[in-house]
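FORM 7B - TANDEM STRUCTURE REPORT

SECTION 1: FIRST PROTEIN
SEQUENCE AND TOKENS:
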Amino acid sequence: MITCNFAPNEQWDDAWVSFKLLFQPWRWKNGEELEIVKKQILRQFRISNFEFRIFLFLTGRSALYTILKSLNLPKGSEVIVQAFTCEAVILPILACGLKPVYVDIETKSFSINPIDLQKKITDKARALILQYSFSITPVYKDEILSLVSKHKLLLIEDIAHGYSNQEISNFKFQISNSIFLMSFGRSKAISSVFGGAIATNNLAVIKQLSNSQASLSMPSWLFIFRLLLYKSVSMLIKSTYDLIIGKIIHKIINTFHLIIPEITNNEKGGEFDQTLNKAYPNALAILLLHQLNKYERMQKNRAQITAFYNKNYKLQITNNKSISNFEFRISNYPLLRYPLLVTNRDLILQKAAKNNIFLGKWYDQVVAPKSLNLKKVGYTKGSCLVAEKICQQIINLPTNINRQEAEKVINILNDV
């Protein structure tokens, strides 16, 4: 089983750490790992020399909700976001009584187009969320930051998809009061199944977040237990999927709802789920520490697979009529997923799935998932045409796989 979507980061060592924790409930809610993981994140983030603080939350959307709530912005204030995004970014904005303003994207890094941004900034704009799609640093970041400074907007840099250490070290923190949004969800670059964080040196925000976070309660014992099941069960499924056993286990897990879904029914219905607005438990910090300790190795592997796709994209895939022409070219950085635009997406996905290769569709509509009612999240069809077109054509290739598996992915693309 090769997949972008189902436990892309998990290996047997992760499953073993999680399995042992099932029998150590005294470590689930509180423990020293909560502080250790904050220091480790700062080391990985290479900002240990700055006055940064890390605030941990059960989910990335809870982190975003808390920071927006703590700003005490007037109702109806505008938060600028790109139209190529997901519900986890938009629902916290709406839950705070704020208005998302959607900006179209460019096709070099799938981030905000500064030309469209300039057109859509109004006097009601108070903040801008800059998304690093697939962990690619926005190609027009300097132009965007210039507009942010000009209009005195609060900037939240959304690095939930991950980031390149090489890029991070070159940031030089162009905004003096920096705010970074992180996610440790199961489909992100480092996974504790659920989890999110805010990293900031904004003293006003630090004060507000300190007060807000103190009021968050821990998730229930049962909730944590179900999260800890995920890594062990997912590895069992992945390792036996080609033998049919994994498919049976997966069916049983879904039938009896043993695993907490990544997106809840409330969120699919367009509502921010307050049940996920909780504190980050120590058990997840232990899982995250284990992944952080091997983060450099995972990133090196992602960079190698990205380089492999880059080479084969130029030499092989461009000869395939299914591939659209577009501007995207990326250096050999460690991408969370490798994006491609195709003209026959459904055919490619179906053929890959028959070979137990499950490619991604981030994103199959503006403000994904596709089941989400766009009117409910305030998106007007036709307002961001580039993003809409890309959502009809994009597929994602997995990067946290080995060379042999990457060759299988390329072969599928070339056979369609």
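SECTION 2: SECOND PROTEIN
SEQUENCE AND TOKENS:
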Amino acid sequence: MSHFRYIRKRLCCEGVRLAEIAEKVGTPAYVYSQSAIEERFREFDRAFAPMPHLICYAVKANANLAILSLLRARGAGFDIVSGGELRRVLAARAQPERIVFSGVGKTLEEVDLGLRHGILQFNLESEAELDLLAARAAHLRKEARVGVRVNPDVDAETHPYHSTGLSEHKFGISCRRASEVLQKAAQMRRLTVTGIGFHIGSQITRLEPFISALERLRALALELRVRGIVIRHLDLGGGLGIVYADEEPPEVSAYGRALIDLVKDVGCGILLEPGRAIVGNAGLLLTRVIRTKDSESKSFVIVDAAMNDLIRPSLYGAHHRIQHETLARREARVVDVVGPVCETGDFLARDRELPAARAGDLLAVMSAGAYGFVSSSNYNSRTRPAEVLVRGSRFRVIRRRETFDDLIRGEARRPL
């Protein structure tokens, strides 16, 4: 069920009117449904229940500590891509043995941090990274569990910026080289080979790319077994798409069945790294109309949220549904919904048919729970929005709105 719905003609998150949140917290603000996050996590957990598995939530999608703590309490592990994300999940009291460290650019300091905490697995993306990990493990006298992220050269059939599994991309090691790298790793002191995996992209709405990639990973796992390297985990990445407009992504249950059918006889557990698929439709960006403006060729609705708050429309041309906070009947108009930032690229929607807006109206930019606040910035010296978590009839500010003092903290006030 949708956790954002109209009750007595007012748009609500669970049992709380968005107008009440706007009155108490201000706008713009990100609003998340706790029940939506919990239910979506349970869907993934149930879908992969027939096999030993760990759902490692992709922290990059939404890194708020309250949300990380919520998922940790429900049994999630975590997929991280930086030392900062590692510190975040530890602050949320995650168990290190449930953390997977991915990413092509792990630094010496980040590797050391992961080694000191004894994380579940480093997903290696180059031979040079393997050499660094071996050297740091020896230096710190720590044991390291390693996997290799395989680049299966599979087209994820998604936006080019979201695709990560082709040979032309920076991610992973080719299937041909992965076997050699793993054999090298197996000979290194203080390293234990534990997994192989892939992550071919994000916002994928068909099963076929996942199946193609997993067929190649399965063949590699069986080849490695012949060579005496027993893989404990197959990391199937994330990337399952959500509905923003009219997409028809597979159900999580169908996704689980298709992947399990391919690997149930390999003798490995499964790691999974969903992010957007868990939090994307659990959040919205609440914004208020500043004014409207008509030019000779366009009509504009100017709101107090901008590209610095939600970059996806400007960066990807991404579509987010926009809903009025009230169901009052008004004539529909074709408008651009734009923010106050001094860029032509500052828009949340273009050529969108919406009920006529007036100054002071509240609008909800839907499906903004993933890659929203985490990608926000202070461009134009704008303070970043508040984040609010709703459960039933209660809500809590889980990140206060930034202030101007926050904005200039750490800056020198005088030149040389």
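SECTION 3: OBSERVATIONS ON SECOND PROTEIN
Residues 208-226 form the longest helix (19 residues).
The longest strand covers residues 283-294.

SECTION 4: SIGNATURE
Preparer initials: ____
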